[in-house]
């Protein structure tokens, strides 16, 4: 790790130490995911706390997550919802969904969590066609090349006042390039342009520090 990377990691550890006390259920979630061989790409504890805060601040009762992985961020979202709320989380992998269901079953929540398996784009289109009620919070944390399409697909599923959040949209600065060199950075850059210019949204990107600099896009549906 470079000196800059060590400094960023120390900053993240400082924030986590002050604001995110140890949590047995979330620690068990991470251990279960590691044992199952899931990639360690879940949000950090401090970013999880940010998701929880944003969900609580908007008084959300319904949340939609695109990209479940092991259910770590799902748990943060679910804990932020009002009692009796609902999380719908979309996951491509049956194996990942099984790990998430096991972790979520071990957490006592007054919230319904519905883990749905299959390609997210098809599921989102079907949800809109079926007239699924609008979501108060949407969190996108899946394949980066699909982000721009996911944004378009979630717009029929939100209302004025809803929040749309998207992780990993800075890619350690790779989105600064006119022509990013990899698919993930290109997908994130395209999403950033789309969310910044969308006529129904007001948005910003908040930098997220770990060993590298990334970012969380926060968009409010205003019309």
Written account of the structure:
- The chain has 223 residues and is of the alpha/beta class.
- It has one domain: Vaccinia Virus protein VP39 (Rossmann fold), CATH 3.40.50.
- 43% of the residues lie in helices and 24% in strands.
- It is built from eight helices and seven strands, in the order H-H-H-E-H-E-H-E-H-E-H-E-H-E-E.
- The chain has helices at 3-19, 24-35, 45-57, 72-80, 94-105, 120-129, 147-154, 183-197; strands spanning 62-66, 85-91, 111-117, 135-140, 158-167, 201-209, 213-221.
- The protein has a seven-stranded mixed beta sheet, with helices on both faces.
- The longest helix has 17 residues, at 3-19.
- The N and C termini lie far apart (44 Å).
List the helices and strands and how they pair.
Layout lengths: L2 H17 L4 H12 L9 H13 L4 E5 L5 H9 L4 E7 L2 H12 L5 E7 L2 H10 L5 E6 L6 H8 L3 E10 L15 H15 L3 E9 L3 E9 L2
Parallel strand pairs: 1-2, 1-4, 2-3, 4-5
Antiparallel strand pairs: 5-7, 6-7
Helix pairs in contact: 2-5, 3-4, 6-7, 7-8
